[in-house]
Amino acid sequence: MSDHAFATRAIHAGQAPDPTTGAIIPPIYQSSTHVQDGIGGLRGGYEYNRSGNPTRSSLETQLAALEGGEGALSFASGLAAEDALLRGILTPGDHVLLGNDVYGGTYRLLTRVLSTWGIETTTVELSDVDALRAAIRPETKIVWLETPSNPLLKVVDIALTAEIAHAAGAIVVVDNTFASPALQQPLSLGADLVVHSTTKYLGGHSDVLGGAVVFGDDRFFEQVKFQQFAVGAVSAPLDAWLTTRGIKTLALRMRQHSENAQAIAEWAQQRPEIAQVFYPGLASHAGHDIAARQMSGFGGMLSLGLAAGADAARSFAESTSLFQLAESLGGVESLIGYPPDMTHASVRGTELAVPENIVRLSVGIEDVSDLIADLEDGLGRIGR
Ligand SMILES: *Cc1c(COP(=O)(O)O)cnc(C)c1O
Q: Which architecture does CATH list for 250-380?
């Protein structure tokens, strides 16, 4: 598959028809165990669902092909994937350097769960190369970044970060959830590992929770696979299948998400009620040039800073109708959220706290004129 283009890989990698019936869609292997031909005589290596399941394998092949990786593992959630990755690679005394705007759940996992197992975590502004160099320590095992970030859509130069981290003996993990592999390929830019919440754009239809680790080479695969097997946070067969189905339209969806978000960002810039528009597709965005270089589209996420402050932002988030008020992102339907009280409530009062006057939009693939009309209605209802 590696000689085919992205959209082709997304549809065909790991998706060979069922050999016994010719069913064009590989079946959902809703089975917890596999019959052995004599003790240890496994068919296709399958034994018990926690160690492997053919539907999960099909998704893992597809995920590796999407990111240009050597292998992938599919988990029950994005955080389960992160947890297995971190425990598979780190040992007590290791240090993790996080971008200062990574997903709040990643920060919580490291500072409140893994800290008790002897892992130290600090954060840094990754767009500041001097700060990055100064923050890396001899014990730094992982530099963890997210670009574009959540909710301020900050952009980090993946290739430059990888160069600096590697020179200091650390590996680089990129959380590629926001861009998706349709728009950004971190392994080709020098990252060692990619993680995903497949709950978001990869699944794409807000109907499944899942996560993945994709490996640039075979250095860490066995360690993380062992964690997955020993701890058990695997994706269930139906969830894996739904994710596979979502991925087949990823390239198309990401094009439309990006086009709609760009139109909304340009509309928002003209509105007096909106003081800041955070979207890397705007030439005025601080990370625009890097994003244009390392992404093939700017994605469907954007945040808006309301000129009238926090109360106006809260009211706006409750005043739209096509944009539904909910956590999460990346589905075909548009969502609006108030990060300080919703997605980022767990980092309030920490160094990862976000401005109080913003709303975050996950722009769906509805007709963009309906979306803009909905936002205009919402602005008109602020404070009512
Ligand atoms: C949602 C999300 C996660 C966590 O994934 P879950 O599937 O919710 O466990 C991690 N990183 C980013 C960027 C996310 O948006």
A: Alpha-Beta Complex (3.90)
